[in-house]
Design a protein that fits this description.
heterodimer, A: mainly alpha, B: mainly alpha, 79% helix
Chain lengths: 65, 257
């Protein structure tokens, strides 16, 4: 437990950035009307595929216009 | 000139709408600091994960500040470049596919201005993200591994920006005669892979080949002095950038008539 705390203390910048990225992707997801494929699947991808999920959503998930 | 400003603004608005101004810097920061941080904390990480038999002794190779900096840079040249290509692949090809390009080019818009505006918009987006990311990485490396002077860092940024510019120019060049974004990305990645294969075969013969830029930058960080090879490679990259843009103007004009 103590070690886990130590680890969080060391790696918090990475965790924080990942958190911000996920939140940004969630906001983008909420505001996007049409996605490629089912919208709810993208929600799962953003939430559960760490880091790579939000990036994938930003690059290929959104359908423009 | 006002046409140039209009297209440039349109590009910026588009990357704003796609949240690119927000997420690209974050992803670049993650890429840049991930490797130095995990390398530094590897012993703690192994400790926390556990599973090692009692009394195991690890000899961690000592990583110098310059090596850590190069870790950031190599992440950027892998995944950073991939993101740049994926976000640039549709800049003209996508507009052609959806018909927006025809709408714009039916007006008396200079074709070279159209391309240059797009090129500049992409360049500013990715270079700002790159600068922010490497600032973070510089901060951590100075904290954890040792000093890299601001001058060295600054030179590294300037020289590496040329490579980022080259990737953007190459992607835009392939954009000018295609209307399939996926194909553009494939061609660009293919070209970069062939270049790096070519370079690994002939490394010692062609010291000024663009792909050697990172190696020269690494040498500069190690020795703290700018080598002639670095300058020569940089000049070749600038020329290549210019040439690719000129080729883009020509092929774009041809393919829209």
């Amino acid at each position: 437990m103590e070690q886990a705390l130590e680890l969080i203390k060391l790696l918090w910048p990475l965790i924080l950035l990942q958190f911000i990225l996920t939140i940004a992707a969630l906001i983008a997801w909420y505001r996007t009307e049409e996605t490629k494929g089912e919208k709810w699947v993208w929600l799962l991808i953003i939430l559960f595929a760490n880091t790579i999920g939000p990036i994938l959503f930003f690059i290929i998930g959104r359908r423009d216009r | 000139m006002s046409v140039f400003v209009t297209i440039f603004k349109k590009e910026c608005l588009e990357s704003w709408r796609q949240f690119s101004w927000f997420w690209v810097p974050i992803v670049f920061i993650l890429l840049a600091i991930m490797d130095p941080l995990t390398t530094y904390y590897m012993p703690t990480l192994l400790d926390a994960v556990g599973g090692l038999p009692e009394g195991t002794i690890f000899e961690m190779p000592d990583v110098t500040a310059a090596e850590a900096m190069m870790m950031s840079l190599s992440q950027m040249s892998m995944f950073g470049v991939l993101i740049i290509i994926l976000l640039t692949m549709g800049t003209i090809a996508g507009e052609r596919k959806s018909g927006v390009a025809e709408l714009i080019l039916v007006k008396p818009v200079n074709h070279s201005l159209y391309i240059t505006a797009k090129w500049l918009a992409k360049l500013i987006l990715f270079l700002s993200a790159f600068f922010i990311a490497m600032l973070f990485s510089w901060y951590y490396i100075n904290l954890l591994f040792g000093t890299i002077t601001f001058t060295d860092w600054f030179y590294m940024m300037i020289f590496y920006s040329l490579w980022i510019g080259f990737v953007i120019s190459l992607t835009i060049f392939y954009n000018t005669f295609s209307n399939k974004p996926g194909l553009v990305a494939a061609k660009t990645v293919g070209t970069l892979v062939i270049m790096s294969l070519f370079n690994s075969i002939l490394f010692h013969r062609l010291l000024w080949f663009p792909n050697n830029l990172s190696a020269h930058i690494g040498q500069m960080l190690n020795e703290g002095s700018l080598s002639q090879d670095l300058w020569a490679t940089a000049i070749i990259l600038v020329l290549l950038n210019g040439l690719l843009l000129l080729f883009s103007f020509a092929t774009f004009r041809k393919s829209t008539h």
